[in-house]
Request: fold
Amino acid sequence: MDVRASRVGRRTDLAAGFYVLLRGPLGVGKTTVAERLAREIRGEYISIDRILDERGLESWYRGYYSQRSFFRANAFAAKRAREPLDQGTTVVFDGNFYYKSQIEDLIRRLDYPHFVFTLKAPLRVCIDRDRRRSPSLGPESARAVYEKSTEFDYGVEVNATRPVRSIIHQITSNLPRRPGPKMRGRDP
Reply:
């Protein structure tokens, strides 16, 4: 296991569950990977962007969502994640996480073992992928989020230009192997 992926909290018992945080720029493939990963490991999927939208938490600072917006989204996300984590279910989060403080805030709120992955792809790939989805947020938004979310790396870097299956394999190879029905397709 790549130790850079893990920043284990006080709770180290994996029977209580662990979470995976996927971060990276707009258009890198976070949602596609997170949803498939959650299905494959029979985990719970939580989208930070969806929480921001559904709860109307968007507030802006210098052209970006404010840190306060993300902290408020983290509070909802952490509340939603606790029950599955306590039941031993893995939770998969996806979001831009373009503030390191947002990652650290979520980690403080969820004192469970966790694994952070930064999905990486060139800006042109992210713009092209955004262009193909509906609705597209546009090249200016893709560029702005790319610049902000690539200011720092956190956890394990994952080349997101590869096929989704290969990305998921790299991520799962960094996760603990647990026996039982909570994670399928993994040998104990």
Summary: The two ends are 14 Å apart (CA to CA).
